[in-house]
Amino acid sequence: xxxxxxxxxxxxxxxxxxxxxGECPMPEVRRLMETDTAYDPALWQKMTDQxxxxxxxxxxxxxxxxxxxxxxxxxxxxxxxxLPGPLFSTLAAGAIIDACGSEQQREKYLPGxxxxxxxxxVVFLEAGASWNVSDLKLSGSSGKLNGxxxxxxxxxxxxxxxxxxxxxxxxxxSGTPGLKITPMKGIxxxxxxxxxxxxxxPAERLCGNLGGLSRAMEVATVALTAELAGxxxxxxxxxxxxxxxxxxxGKPIGSFQAxxxxxxxxxxxxxxxxxxxxxxxxxxxxxxxxxxxxxxxxKMYASxxxxxTGNRGIQVHGGMGFTWEHDAHLYYRRxxxxxxxxxxxxxxxxxIAQLVVDSKTVSANV
Length: 366
Hints:
Elements lengths: L6 H17 L2 H8 L7 H9 L18 H14 L5 H14 L2 H13 L4 E3 L21 E10 L6 E6 L2 E6 L5 E6 L8 E10 L1 E2 L7 H33 L1 E2 L2 E2 L4 H29 L5 H27 L10 H13 L4 H21 L1
Parallel strand pairs: 1-3
Antiparallel strand pairs: 2-6, 3-4, 4-7, 5-6, 8-9
Helix pairs in contact: 1-4, 4-7, 4-8, 5-6, 5-7, 7-8, 7-9, 7-10, 8-9, 9-10, 9-11
């Protein structure tokens, strides 16, 4: 069994690392997070030229036709760079169109996403709801949407809003009468969030395999988990580098056992999240029998581990870690915001239990 990435996958990972380091260094991240949308058209076009916006979509629609593993590798590097802007949201929206849209709808919308001409957002969360299909309460009767969704990432920059409802998945174009997008205060300034209100808003219902919504959301969850792995890797590097140079009592603080233990724990959790993200991506790509469980295990562990790693990183940095000028708190903010996005650890523990119990019940009945 091959446990490592292939040569072509490693080239993709290295290319993404160099691209983000050159085109979106931390000074640029800080500049963008001070804007209203954290979106830069020039950077977006460069990512499009690299094929990032179409990485998992079929070549017939202008995509690269790669798999979920390649998506995870790309998003890991995006997390390492603390990439602002709507790449994650657009890929998640595109995954829903690809999984749930008819052939005509895929031909209509996916080329725009792959070419970078269209950006997307997924509108699924409301008070007391998760991304379980059964929790989506927005009314979509007669193709008209009514209701409010919250914590929608990158809604202000989206051309296409994907709205899962109880009776199907709807697509809304930005600028449609009856659509109101309102900024919300979020913990992560590099990923803007909004509330979205629909008032008798006409929407297009996706007419393909509506059962593909769960898989599309799992693809998005894998991408987010991989992003957290990259986030943790960067926090680990910043912390170890600081521990080697900061001196106390005439010695680098990295020579003290307590600091060494914290860095070792950070390394363990980072590698564990990376491994679980890679496996869940492979399982989903290969339609393995445990794919859904693997996705939830990965996100469950990453939600807690990324927060713990951020806590330890800031603790090792001491007072420096709390300053605005240092990057550690920016990575912690992203990790804390992503902890609950697409389900926190508690949600995914419950989902794992349901998946395992349901599968055993089916086996027993057979």
